[in-house]
Amino acid sequence: MSIQWNGVMPAVFTWLKESKSGSLEIDHDVTQEQAAGILKAQGKGGSRMNGLVGSGTLGENSYLSTKQRLSLLKSLSEVAKEYNVPLISGAAAETKGELAKIVEGLATVGVNTVMVMPPKTKELPSDEEMYAYYAIAEETARGAGVTIMPYNNPDAAGYHALSTDLLLKLATLPNVTALKISTIDVSIIETMMLENKDLNILAGVDTVTVHAGLAGACGGITGVGCIFPKASVTMQEYVSNGQWAEANKISQALNSLSYLDAQPLLMEYLKLAMGIHHNDVAGGLRTFGKKLTQQQIDDVRTRYILAKERLEVLDLIG
Fold first, then answer.
1. Is residue 221 in a domain?
2. What's the order of all strands across the beta sheet hosting 87-91?
3. Is residue 169 one of the residues assigned to a domain?
């Protein structure tokens, strides 16, 4: 599949339900239904989301077993095929061997592009070691008929940052089709674009979508866009067209909610906001992650209501 990176892609939530034994399990039907609803949404300019990200940070990825993850992605691949968009998912491992197995597994369930996180090692690898790790991922992906997207998340605890020089070098590997940069420091994107104006860089933090576009990002991966897809797509339309004032109005309208995308509990917060949006608070609170306090729940609700009110003024609910 030829992937068009200019646009925005939703990192969808994994919806859970209670099993007969009372434990939580993946609700494939609702997860598919919500993903389809997001991909149906159109911006004011008529465009839609141009990809689907499954089993990511917002999709409970770190809590799922390999079997659960592959089952989830297989069901999401059906939605991606229906809407003719690529399916993207992440891979994180400690060793090159582990990473190769993950990439091969993802390719078997319909994933088109693998977002590859830096190795999960305690010690910071050298650039040479880091390059070798990504080179294995690229080689494995090529053999499996998929592509990779190196994923730099320097602000997240537990992940090693990739240097700008290394990212530029990785971008030249034949099966690397894009880079994901999840940081509020968008100067990283600008610096890289000055070195190579042909890079496809996706922003990964909702608070900086417009700023990342100014710096040269061609699109982004969004969590808040799962809740308000029309607003997210329209904002990206304005960014792509250089209509910065219009894009910024939407960014400001989303600000109270986008703030949560840069917090350690982003998955729990935004999943709850999605539950509130769909009148399913109980579902939004079902997670393998942390249980939210009443104060946190109230804060998310207040932030959601504020964003919704601001978007209603702009006719961007839908």
1. yes
2. 7-10, 219-222, 201-203, 179-181, 147-152, 113-116, 87-91, 52-53
3. yes
- Both tokens of 257, joined, read 């909610």
Domain holding 180, by residue range, is 7-251
CB atoms closer than 10 angstroms to residue 194 = 10
Among the listed residues 183, 218, 175, the one whose alpha carbon sits nearest the alpha carbon of residue 204: 183
Residue 308 lies in a domain: no
Indicate the pairing of strand 87-91 with strand 113-116: parallel
- Using one digit for the tens of pLDDT, what is the confidence trace for 147-187? 999 999 887 767 788 999 999 999 999 999 999 999 999 99
Crossing angle for the helix pair 127-144 and 96-108, nearest 10 degrees? Answer: 30
Question: pTM score, two decimals?
Answer: 0.95
Alpha helices in 201-315 (DSSP H): 209-215, 224-227, 229-240, 244-258, 266-277, 281-285, 294-313
Helix (H, G, I), strand (E, B) or coil at 155: coil
pLDDT-based confidence at 124, cuts 50/70/90? confident
Average pLDDT of 301-311? 98
In sequence order, the 6+-apart residues with CB closer than 8 A to the CB of 219 are: 5, 6, 7, 8, 9, 50, 202, 203, 236, 240
d(CA 24, CA 30): 14
Note whether residue 301 is domain-resident: no
Phi then psi dihedrals of residue 279, to 5 deg = 55, 40
The pLDDT value given to residue 154: 82
- Residue 174 tokens, joined: 């034949």
Q: Could you identify the residue written with the tokens 């910071």?
A: 124
The residue to which tokens 């592509």 are assigned = 147
* CB atoms inside a 10 Å sphere around CB 68: 17
Per-residue pLDDT of 5-48, as tens digits, reads 999 999 999 999 998 888 999 999 999 999 999 999 999 999 99
Q: What is the dihedral of CA 216, 218, 222, 224, to 10 degrees?
A: 70
Task: Answer yes or no: are the C-beta atoms of 176 and 115 closer than 8 Å.
Answer: no
Q: What is the CATH number of the domain that holds 202?
A: 3.20.20.70
Q: How many domains does the chain have?
A: 1
